[in-house]
Amino acid sequence: MNLVERITVVPDVCNGKPTIRGMRITVRTVLEYLAAGETAENILDAYPNLELADIQASLAYAALLADVRIDSLPLPMAA
Question: Cβ distance 3 to 57 under 8 Å?
Answer without folding.
Answer: yes
